[in-house]
């Protein structure tokens, strides 16, 4: 007994390390570290025990190993029993310090192995046993296939280390802070929740307050479905640790040239709710059957590869929402605020954002309305109707955290639920858009328009007038009278872009032409939508002078995937059959600046110098249009409408 006590004191860190490596990574670093200490502190025999190979330490090592393997096999029941034993940590969360790349890689590899193989690796490396000795210890600990466990441990390979089980290499890696549960970092638990609990405790007797605290901490969470699928997610454990979340300082946007989501601070009333944040990370890594997962086209649905940045965590309407950013993707987790129900996990690409395209992100959609979290550099939020270009924008209040009041969704749409987001491809009687203004602290401060197309990030709307360099030059914000008048004819076509991961849409008036018989001036528009993943969608429209301000233009051509109307292809042409007020039919065609001539063939033959052609034609004429640029290159309309 005295030898065992002395061995426990002398080799306590080794025993804790052995237990920590063997225990399941799914416990999380806090519970895994405390459990390792509990197992090591409970191995002293209560009566003299028979000697074993390795003396008193060998006996303790065997008991720790047996207890860790048993915990892995009966973790839930054993976890309940362990909670009444020391050590216990209240109000703090502990975890080992992070190691280097090789240690992190080894952590991931070991997390994917069964407990028996992890124990074998610790015996071979940290304990320095040979394979026969390791098999003997595993056999004594009750492992069914010691040889298989040792074989699995011997097959561990990480990074550029070809033989990680080599005693010198393995012992060095397991001696790193990543596996040292005796050298721990400390972080607080949810301080705001604890403060609320203290207020409750102050108005009740000690016994009642203790019961209320337990109900608040555990009872409320027990009513929430787990949502994460069972099993260990294939993710770096650090990436699933709420304590490791990246949080940008509140004023970072004022001191950086990277004006995207990386400059957003963490906001929301539950930004320090570690239970909620841990659940959101776990669901992201391994969503369960009660989670509706939706991703914009081309967006990977994989879990976090490293600790993401927290942008928001809070309650909105009937949902509790958490929003993460991992540098390339926006991830939104939403669960019912009360009771049970389905959760939602939305993922969207957002790489390459700027001050306008990173100005807002969806918080929640309910009953045809949406709330958005706005960027810290947004100082004014308004809404306006694209179909009413003459109306003034109206103010949209925001909370202190930057969350807008409900904003009507475009089109006649009714949605509900935490994960709602899809909308009918309809225009309805209005097309509401948000008009935001950036802070005066930003150079080039401006107002700009964002339209909700059913994705997490609203779409930036821009405008290019017929004069100037066209798409080869920078677009203008679509807030001026000319831009709004043009967008009124194009707004209803935005509905065709819902759910496609669109980043921005540019409305380019590439020509204005006088129609025959003095019928007025027509507008020719190329509307180009660029997606976050790269490909673009383009279509051309003809807008005659007659009609209402919001009448949609006639579709004359479209390109579902290409470079049309971009700075890489800044030339475009279109044609249409047009009926004059006197009921005469004409073939009219127009092209962008830099066009030398236009030619019509087939049902009608005509040629015109420059970028405009108008010729009489019988109703129903189907002509072939071609153009030639000033440098001799040919030009054709976009694909058929």
Layout of secondary structure:
Blueprint: H1 2-22, H2 29-41, H3 55-73, H4 75-82, E1 92-96, H5 101-111, H6 115-124, H7 131-140, H8 146-154, H9 167-174, E2 184-188, H10 191-201, H11 206-222, H12 274-285, E3 291-295, E4 309-316, E5 319-325, E6 329-336, E7 343-349, E8 360-366, E9 369-374, E10 378-385, E11 394-395, E12 407-408, E13 432-438, E14 447-451, E15 459-464, E16 476-477, H13 481-488, E17 502-514, E18 521-531, E19 536-543, E20 554-562, E21 573-579, E22 585-591, E23 595-602, E24 606-609, E25 612-616, E26 623-629, E27 634-635
Parallel strand pairs: 3-7, 15-17
Antiparallel strand pairs: 1-2, 4-5, 5-6, 6-7, 8-9, 9-12, 10-11, 10-13, 13-14, 14-15, 15-16, 17-18, 18-19, 19-20, 21-22, 22-25, 23-24, 23-26, 26-27
- Please, how many helices? 13
Radius of gyration: 33 Å
What is the mean pLDDT? 84
From the spread of the alpha carbons, the general shape counts as elongated
Distance between the termini: 90 Å
Number of strands: 27
Largest sheet: 10 strands, mixed
What is the SS-derived class? alpha+beta
């Amino acid at each position: 007994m005295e030898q065992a006590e002395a061995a426990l004191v002398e080799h306590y860190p080794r025993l804790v390390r052995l237990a920590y490596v063997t225990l399941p990574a799914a416990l999380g670093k806090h519970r895994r570290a405390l459990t390792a200490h509990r197992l090591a502190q409970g191995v002293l025999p209560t009566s003299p025990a028979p000697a074993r190979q390795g003396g008193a330490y060998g006996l303790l090592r065997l008991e720790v190993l047996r207890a860790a393997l048993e915990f892995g096999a009966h973790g839930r029941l054993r976890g309940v029993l362990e909670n009444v034993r020391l050590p216990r940590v209240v109000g703090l969360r502990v975890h080992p310090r992070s190691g280097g790349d090789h240690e992190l890689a080894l952590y991931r590899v070991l997390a994917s192995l069964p407990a028996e193989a992890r124990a074998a690796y610790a015996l071979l490396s940290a304990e320095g046993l040979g394979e026969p000795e390791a098999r003997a210890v595993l056999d004594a600990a009750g492992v069914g296939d010691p040889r298989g466990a040792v074989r699995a441990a011997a097959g561990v390979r990480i990074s550029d280390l070809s033989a990680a089980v080599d005693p010198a290499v393995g012992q060095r890696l397991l001696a790193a802070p990543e596996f040292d549960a005796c050298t721990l970092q400390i972080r607080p638990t949810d301080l705001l929740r604890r403060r609320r609990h203290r207020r409750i405790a102050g108005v009740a007797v000690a016994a009642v307050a203790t019961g209320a605290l337990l109900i608040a901490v555990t009872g409320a969470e027990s009513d929430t479905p787990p949502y994460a699928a069972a099993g260990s997610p294939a993710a770096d454990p650090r990436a699933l640790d709420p304590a490791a979340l990246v949080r940008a300082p509140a004023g970072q946007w004022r001191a950086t040239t990277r004006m995207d989501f990386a400059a957003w601070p963490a906001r929301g009333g539950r930004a320090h709710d570690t239970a909620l944040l841990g659940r959101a990370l776990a669901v992201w890594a391994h969503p369960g059957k009660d989670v509706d997962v939706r991703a914009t086209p081309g967006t990977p649905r994989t879990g976090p590869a490293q600790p993401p940045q927290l942008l928001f965590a809070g309650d909105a309407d009937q949902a509790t929402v958490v929003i993460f950013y991992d540098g390339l993707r926006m991830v939104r987790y939403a669960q019912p605020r009360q009771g049970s129900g389905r959760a939602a996990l939305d993922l969207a690409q957002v790489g390459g954002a700027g001050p306008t395209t990173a100005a807002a992100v969806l918080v929640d959609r309910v009953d045809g309305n949406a709330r958005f979290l706005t960027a810290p550099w947004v100082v004014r939020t308004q809404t306006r109707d694209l179909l009413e270009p003459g109306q003034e924008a109206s103010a949209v209040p925001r909370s202190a955290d930057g969350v807008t009041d409900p904003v009507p969704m475009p089109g006649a749409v009714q949605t509900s639920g935490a994960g709602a987001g899809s909308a009918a491809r309809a225009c309805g009687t209005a097309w509401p858009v948000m008009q935001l203004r950036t802070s005066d602290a930003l150079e080039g401060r401006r107002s700009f328009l964002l339209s909700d197309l059913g994705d997490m990030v609203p779409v930036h709307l821009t405008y290019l007038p017929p004069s100037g360099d066209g798409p080869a030059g920078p677009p203008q914000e679509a807030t001026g009278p000319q831009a709004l008048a043009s967008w009124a004819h194009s707004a209803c076509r935005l509905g065709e872009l819902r759910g496609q991961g669109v980043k921005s849409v540019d409305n380019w008036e590439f020509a204005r032409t006088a129609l025959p018989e003095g019928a007025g001036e027509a507008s020719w528009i190329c509307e180009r939508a660029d997606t976050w993943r790269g490909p673009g969608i383009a279509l051309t429209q003809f807008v005659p002078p007659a009609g209402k301000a919001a009448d949609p233009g006639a579709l004359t051509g479209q390109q579902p995937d290409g470079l049309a109307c971009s700075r890489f292809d800044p030339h475009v042409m279109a044609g249409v059959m047009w009926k004059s007020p006197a009921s005469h039919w004409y073939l009219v065609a127009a092209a962008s600046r830099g066009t030398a001539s236009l030619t019509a063939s087939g049902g009608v033959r005509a040629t015109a110098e420059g970028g405009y052609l108008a010729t009489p034609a019988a109703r129903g004429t189907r002509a072939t249009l071609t153009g030639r640029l000033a440098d001799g290159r040919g030009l054709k309309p976009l694909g058929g409408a």
